[in-house]
Amino acid sequence: MPTVAPLDLEGHCIATIFLGGVPHFALADGVVHRLDHGHKWTELHDGLLSTAYDAARSRLVTGGEDGKVRAIGANDSVETLAEAGRKWITSVASGPQGAIAFATGKTATVRFADGKTRDFTHPRSVEGLAFAPKGMRFGVARYNGATLHFPATEGKPVDLEWAGAHTGITFSPDGNFLVTSMQENALHGWKLADGKHMRMTGYPLKVKSMSWSAKGKWLASSGAPAAIVWPFTGKDGPMGKAPLELGTRGNAAVTCVACHPSEDIVAIGYNDGMIIAARFADAKEVLLRRPGKGAITAMAWDNDEKRIAFGSEAGDCGVIDITG
User: Fold this and answer.
1) CATH number of 1-39+203-324
2) Under DSSP, is residue 276 helix (H, G, I), strand (E, B) or coil?
3) C-alpha of 142 from chain center
4) Contact criterion met (CB below 8 Å) for 291 and 307
5) Are residues 286 and 267 in contact, defined by beta-carbon separation less than 8 angstroms?
6) Is residue 177 within 8 Å of residue 190, measured between CB atoms?
7) Are 315 and 13 in contact (CB under 8 A)?
8) Using H for helix, E for strand and C for coil, what is the string for the chain?
9) CA–CA dist 301, 284 (Å, integer)
10) pLDDT string in tens for the chain (324-residue length)
11) Where is the Anaphase-promoting complex subunit 4-like WD40 domain (predicted)?
12) Whole-prediction pTM value?
């Protein structure tokens, strides 16, 4: 039976991550807590709005209401990467070769590892940012679609149009697909080779959490009484295919999903604080945590694939050891 080490905090947990094997919990007030031979913490911002981790999960990049973009790494090392004055940092993303991107209003800024920056201004506010897994390319979620930029060159931006407000964005691990979450209860995707659309609808709630499986063949999502897991095994993604529905609970809603680092398993968090793990192949479930005080808003696996750090909107956080 999995064991849970609780960490009761005050406030909304935005992100969790393991840095150097140590679980970290980033809260909306701008304080990052960690369980490292006891409870310790570091104040990064006066109000935290957005977070992202790099591919190696060696640091957590954060953006705040104080106009600062910072990064916290293992051993509690903190670096200030950018300052935007009085503007709120509404979205951040971590990219290849030490690059990051951050958004303030209608502008997305890329900061390269050498400290140089480049701005990309849009007609409407930038809602979400994501880097492609290969090459220096990043995507912006915006009103009526998404835009792809190539910050290291003078390449012309690529506009991907679809009516409505797009709020989150993610590339498939192979870089072949781009998927956005929308203000309406839906996901929308594009096959990047030809711009073909992929409509993923039928959610009773907004999708606030998305997670790709280890090999990128599945995209798990929240927004329903089950984790909705779309197949991306064919050349046209999920079109014409039904998604898996894992961990169905008729009286609860899935609020957070986190796919296992190497196996086709997903951790599923619900609005009552319960967490389970479900296997794609046969939908087998394992209870990881009983209901708590608030909806699960963040989960992250460790590099050893044995622990999950979780946090909720009510601040009841902790670490699950799935080996017991």
Assistant:
1) 2.130.10.10
2) strand
3) 17
4) no
5) no
6) yes
7) yes
8) CCEEEEEECCCCEEEEEEECCEEEEEECCCEEEEECCCEEEEECCCCEEEEEECCCCCEEEEEECCCEEEEEEHHHCEEEEEECCCCCCCEEEECHHHCEEEEECCEEEEECCCCCEEEEECCCCCCEEEECCCCCCEEEEEEEEEEEECCCCCCCCEEEEEEEEEEEEEECCCCCEEEEEECCCCEEEEECCCCEEEEECCCCCCCCCEEECCCCCEEEECCCCCEEEEECCCCCCCCCCCCEEECCCCCCCEEEEEECCCCCEEEEEECCCCEEEEECCCCCEEEEECCCCCCEEEEEECCCCCEEEEEECCCEEEEEECCC
9) 19
10) 799 999 999 999 999 999 999 999 999 999 999 999 999 999 999 999 999 987 778 899 999 999 999 999 988 899 999 999 999 999 999 999 899 999 999 999 999 999 999 999 999 999 999 999 988 999 999 999 999 999 988 789 999 999 999 999 999 999 999 999 999 999 999 999 999 999 999 999 999 999 999 989 999 999 999 999 999 988 889 999 999 999 999 899 999 999 999 999 999 999 999 999 999 999 999 999 999 999 999 999 999 999 999 999 999 999 999 987
11) 261-322
12) 0.96
Chain mean position to CA 82: 21
Going by their DSSP bridges, the two strands 91-94 and 78-83 should be labelled as unpaired
For 97, the 3-state DSSP assignment is: helix
CA 111, 116, 120, 125 torsion: positive or negative?
positive
Segments making up each domain of the chain, as ranges: 1-39+203-324
